[in-house]
Amino acid sequence: MERQTLMKPIGVINSPFNDLEKMPIQPKGAAGVLGKIVVDEEYVDGLSDLSGFSHIYLIYNFHQCQKINLKVIPFMDVVERGIFATRSPARPNHIGLSVVKLLEVKENIVTVEGIDVLNGTPLLDIKPYVARFDQVISPVDGWVTAVSEKDVAGKRSDRRFL
Amino acid sequence: MERQTLMKPIGVINSPFNDLEKMPIQPKGAAGVLGKIVVDEEYVDGLSDLSGFSHIYLIYNFHQCQKINLKVIPFMDVVERGIFATRSPARPNHIGLSVVKLLEVKENIVTVEGIDVLNGTPLLDIKPYVARFDQVISPVDGWVTAVSEKDVAGKRSDRRFL
Predict the structure, then answer these.
(1) Chain-wide mean pLDDT for chain A?
(2) Using an 8 Å Cβ cutoff, are A76 and A26 in contact?
(3) How far, in Å, are A14, B40, B121, B126 from residue A1 at the CA level?
(4) Given a cut of 60, is residue A1 above it in pLDDT?
(5) Angle CA(A60)–CA(A28)–CA(B46) in degrees, nearest 5?
(6) pTM of the model
(7) Measured between CB atoms, which of A49, A130, A142 is closest to B128?
(8) How far apart, in Å, are the Cα atoms of A159 and each of A19, A20, A22, B63, B96?
(9) What is the CATH number of the domain that holds A91?
(10) B109-113 and B95-106 as β-strands: parallel, antiparallel, unpaired?
């Protein structure tokens, strides 16, 4: 089962963050930060009906991260964790996922709030956040449970995963 | 910005569904359905610490869907919607996303509940569901708001997106 898949970006995410240094590492740390997604013109019809949703998933490529580490020290922790138990970019396939607030869809431009990605990030997919599918009852947050509220909102990235 | 990315599966998702006909289309429709994910041996170290989380995201390839439709009639609706306002497989890059309940991590085998994918689906990534990052306050579900509770849990797929 070594089937590889070629993914082609459907657009680009523009954000105020041109450098990993000091970038918020989760949407919760990026309250009020606006992002502007430019979807390639050829896909504009696919954005119909999206504006009815309050939140969307962005699936993107951690394009500045080339390496793969199976164990990492996450920004919010001080000990090593398995990469699949973190949201770190240094993962196989370098796929990123963020849930953001949808503000506006105008032609091929999608404006969102709570953006936590680098300016110029290649976008692979947009999906609606559907509470009736996605909302989790009584989740348990593993090692993140021990992270302080201050760190969840306030921690910033650095260049460790470049 | 035409940088393409080559993605290599990190494992395979085994489910009871060998055919799209009658498969649940969301985890909410697959309550009690167990899936067994076989992660490639080379990535086993990346699974450390995952078992502390109650829920995980699976990101996978809709491998049986080759086509791309920018407008689709979703399984739960009767009118056309933009593909990015749906979770349909016929999307650019054919990336699937499910939030499932994590039951067990044992070496390279991850057992989950609420699986809504075809047997043999190539897995691209596992991420922890972290309520403190991902939980959405007061979501609005767009066109899905009008879908009945019965259809959210009970609708099954068919072969329309093959």
Answers:
(1) 91
(2) no
(3) 36, 10, 10, 18
(4) no
(5) 55
(6) 0.93
(7) A142
(8) 9, 6, 9, 35, 30
(9) 2.40.30.70
(10) antiparallel
Distance of CA B152 to the CA centre of its chain: 15
Contact yes or no for A135 and B139 at CB 8 A:
yes
Beta-carbon contacts of A47 under 8 Å, excluding residues fewer than 6 positions away, are A39, A105, A108, A110, A126, B82, B84, B85
pLDDT at A86: 96
Does the pLDDT at position B11 exceed 70? yes
In chain A, which ranges are E strands? 5-7, 11-14, 34-39, 55-61, 71-72, 81-82, 95-106, 109-113, 121-128
Give A-chain residues touching B118 at CB under 8 angstroms.
none
User: Residue B87 falls within a domain, yes or no?
Assistant: yes
- Tell me what ipTM this predicted complex has: 0.93
Comparing CA positions, the residue from B107, B113, B13, B137 lying closest to residue B54 is B113
User: Which CA distances in Å does B80 have to A26, A27, A48, B49?
Assistant: 33, 31, 9, 42
Residue ranges of A 67-96 with Cβ closer than 8 A to chain B: 70-71, 80-87, 91-95
Is B97 a member of any domain? yes
pLDDT on residue B151 = 79
Task: Evaluate whether residue A4 is within a structural domain.
Answer: no
Q: What range defines the domain where residue A20 resides?
A: 11-154
Asked if the structure places residue A1 within a domain, the reply is no
Closest C-alpha among B50, B46, B36, B59 to residue B125: B59
Interface check A31 vs B, CB under 8 A: no
pLDDT digits (tens, 9 = 90+) for B33-90: 999 999 999 999 999 999 999 999 999 999 999 899 999 998 888 899 999 999 999 9
How many domains does the structure of chain A reveal?
1
DSSP state of B136: P
